[in-house]
Every structure is written in structure tokens, then in C-alpha cells.
Amino acid sequence: MGNDSVTLKNVTVLEKVPLAEFTTFGIGGPARYFVEAKSEADVAEAVGWAAQRGVRLYPLGGGSNLLILDEGFDGLILKVGILGVKQDGEAFDVGAGEDWDAFVERTVDNEFAGMECLAGIPGSVGGTPVQNVGAYGQEVAQTIASLRAFDTRAGEMVELHRWDCGFRYRESIFNTTERGRYIVTGVRFELAKHGAPTLSYADLQKRFVGQSTPSLKEVADAVRDIRRVKGMVIEQGNPDTRSAGSFFKNPVVDVGLLPSIAGAACVAVDAVPQWDAGFGKTKLAAAWLLERAGFVKGYGSGPVRISSRHTLALTNRGGATFADVLGMQDEIVTGVERKFGVRLEREPVVLG
Ligand SMILES: Cc1cc2nc3c(=O)[nH]c(=O)nc-3n(C[C@H](O)[C@H](O)[C@H](O)COP(=O)(O)OP(=O)(O)OC[C@H]3O[C@@H](n4cnc5c(N)ncnc54)[C@H](O)[C@@H]3O)c2cc1C
Fold first, then answer.
1. Distance from Cα 262 to the centre of ligand 1, integer Å
2. Is residue 1 scored above 60 in pLDDT?
3. Is 101 in contact with 61 (CB distance < 8 Å)?
4. 320: CB partners within 8 A, 6+ apart
């Protein structure tokens, strides 16, 4: 932790705090200032302190979708550590600092449907609306009713309803139009007691062939198993899983590009994995593009390599720097673009 600190009314501002340990990727330099907020009042105090000093402020959850520069962050990192789960019928009000996967497990154990396919995703509850977390046929936008946030522009707490959040694939207002404005302090989810599990994803359907109604727990366990095989569950001490999750988004391209993509891969058009995205667009599988461009599982020889279990996960094999990550990212983006004419976008956020 930091060498120096200043204690305010509610919170303590630490200085020069190494950030790598607060991220699942394990890279990045120090924060000039660092506060952990345990309540909405703490958040307000930290925001006020930073504003008075003209210091930039950045909210941090579980650090599972974050890349931090080697020089660190010359501002205040506000770690949102607000805890608490309150149940109100089929609704749950959950503190932003609660661990996401532990909350999912609790809902599944109590037979609430709605997030069983989102088991095994690391990070905090408050981080999930930011990129509208999704997996295996579900996304959080389907169960978020509203959320509480500190509006740093207005300087007050606000409540935003689902329809205010602009949820789309891996997007919300929090990572697009209103990026940096809101600090999420709590989320209200609405679930379905004794609801049926979602089984829309092929990998899951295969698991339960011949079994008419798997339980929510069986589905959540199956999701965790599939994720583990794909290296998408963090295993402490295993560098092959030290990642920020999927590094590239699945690109959405014009349907007209398909023949040239298929040609470049020497396959028929209908052999290109794709999902209709409407309006003459189609979503491609980033992992397929990487593999066909030569970026296969285990690729790389330096401290940053593609996971041996998951093509889309760049992993820190030990001592990796941000520069190493950027080098691998550029190599892959350039290689895929050269082969297919498709430019991949990074999924994790870069802080700094
Ligand atoms: C192994 C692995 C598997 C993953 N699998 C998936 C997956 O299947 N699907 C998926 O969608 N994602 C996945 N992810 C990505 C990641 O887990 C999610 O995006 C997660 O929701 C990020 O939450 P976090 O608390 O860790 O956010 P952080 O990484 O701490 O922050 C991410 C962004 O959210 C902002 N943020 C965080 N908390 C708040 C808050 N309280 N208020 C305002 N802004 C905030 C940060 O400022 C930052 O911009 C995976 C990651 C890993 C490492």
C-alpha cells in the first residue's frame, strides 16, 4: 500500500499505491492517490476532495476489465467497496463492491433465474452495467431494473432506470456517451423465483441433451466448467489464466465483406462463423479470425502470450508490462486486418 496518507472525515487518501495487484492482469504502475469507499458518503467525499484539487478521478471495481499503463495513474483511484445485499421479493439491491460471482451463486442457490449463465465472471457488481456483461446467452441488461450512482457532473446521487443506461452489446452510457460521469454505488436486479434456466447457447444445450429441465444450479455449474476448460475462470497462481478476459470484441461488419473473408480463409461463405446483426451487418467470431490469421492458442514467446486454452485471452506469464501487451495487441490487430480487412477492437479498458 501507499507510503503517505491523509485522513478526511470519512475516508483515508493513500498515496503512491501500486495498482497491478488490483487487476486480474497484474500489470500497471502506481496511483498518485487511492481511496477505498465503503459508502455513498465516502464516494461523495472522495469526489469532492479530488474536484477541489483539480485531480482526475477514476472508479475501480475488481480490475478484471482493466489495463493500466506502466507509469500508473496521475490522479485518484476510487475503489468502490460498498457492500450489502438486500432482498425485496424477487428484487435484489446489491452494493457495487460486492463480488459478482458470489452474488450469482447466491441467487442460483436460492432458485432465482436470470443470471445463471453469468456464473464465473470475475469483478464487482458495480462493474457489470459498464460494459453490459454477457455470456452464454444472457446479459446483465436483462435483469437490471435500476441503479444508484454518484453523478460527478451534478455532484449528487441519482437513480437511473434500465432504459436510461443505453445498454447494447458490451456497451452502455457508462463506457460511451457518459464515460467518466457516474460512479455506480448499487444495482437493483429483478429475477424470477423458480424461473427456467436460459439454454440458448449451443455449448450448454449439448451438455443437457436428453435432460428436459436442468436446474439453475446445474446450468451455472456447467457454465463454470465450460469457462474453466476455456481458461476463462481465474485460477490463482496459474499464469495461463492471468488475463483481462476476452481481449477483442466480436467485430460487426457489412454482410458484403463475407465473400472476401471466406476467400481469405479458403472456406465457403457459410463456413464463416457469424450471427446476423441486422441492418445488413453480421457479427463475426474474433477467435476464428485470430486462429485463421495464425494467432492460435499459446501463441507468443514473451511475457504476454495467448492463453493455451482460449484464443481471445492475452495472458501475463510473469513480469509483463503494458508495453508488452500493446506490442502483442498491435501484432494481432495488424495481422488480422492484413488477412481479412477487419479491424479488431480491444474489449478491456485502458486507464491512463
Ligand atoms: C477471466 C475473465 C473472464 C471474463 N469473462 C467475461 C465474460 O464472459 N463476459 C463479460 O462481459 N466480461 C467478462 N470479463 C470482463 C470483466 O470481468 C467484466 O467486464 C467485469 O464486469 C468488470 O468488472 P470489474 O468490477 O472488474 O471492473 P473493472 O475492471 O474494475 O473496471 C472496468 C471499467 O468499469 C468501470 N467501473 C468499475 N466499477 C465501477 C463503478 N462502481 N462505477 C463506475 N464505473 C465502474 C471502471 O472505471 C472501468 O472503466 C472477464 C474477465 C476475466 C478476467
1. 33
2. no
3. no
4. 25, 26, 27, 302, 303, 304
| Residue range 237-271, pLDDT digits in tens | 899 889 999 999 999 999 999 999 999 999 999 99
Domain-wise residue ranges, the chain: 5-80, 85-229, 239-351
CB-ligand 1 contact for 311 (6 Å cutoff): no
Task: Dump pLDDT digits (tens) for 285-339.
Answer: 999 999 999 999 999 999 999 999 999 999 999 999 999 999 999 999 999 999 9
pLDDT in tens, 205-224: 999 988 878 999 999 999 99
With contact defined as beta carbons under 8 Å apart, do 131 and 121 qualify?
no
* Architecture of domain 85-229 in this structure: 2-Layer Sandwich (3.30)
CATH-assigned architecture of domain 239-351: Alpha-Beta Complex (3.90)
Question: Is 64 a pocket residue for ligand 1 (Cβ < 6 Å)?
Answer: yes
Asked whether 232 lines ligand 1 (CB < 6 A), one says yes
Q: 62 to each of 58, 122, 240, how far by Cα in Å?
A: 13, 7, 19
Our answer on whether the CB atom of 245 is closer than 6 Å to any ligand 1 atom is yes
Of all protein residues, the one whose alpha carbon is nearest to atom 18 of ligand 1 is: 65
- What ligand 1 atom has the least distance to the C-alpha of 123? 26
Assess whether the C-beta atom of 63 lies below 6 angstroms from ligand 1. Answer: yes
CA dist 331 and 338 (Å) reads 11
Mean pLDDT score, 139-156: 97
Ligand 1, atom nearest to 128 Cα? 21
Round the average pLDDT of the chain to a whole number and report it.
95
pTM of the predicted protein model: 0.93
Q: Order the strands of the 252-254 sheet from edge to edge.
A: 252-254, 281-284, 274-278
CATH architecture, domain 5-80:
2-Layer Sandwich (3.30)
From ligand 1's centre to the CA of 85, what distance in Å? 19
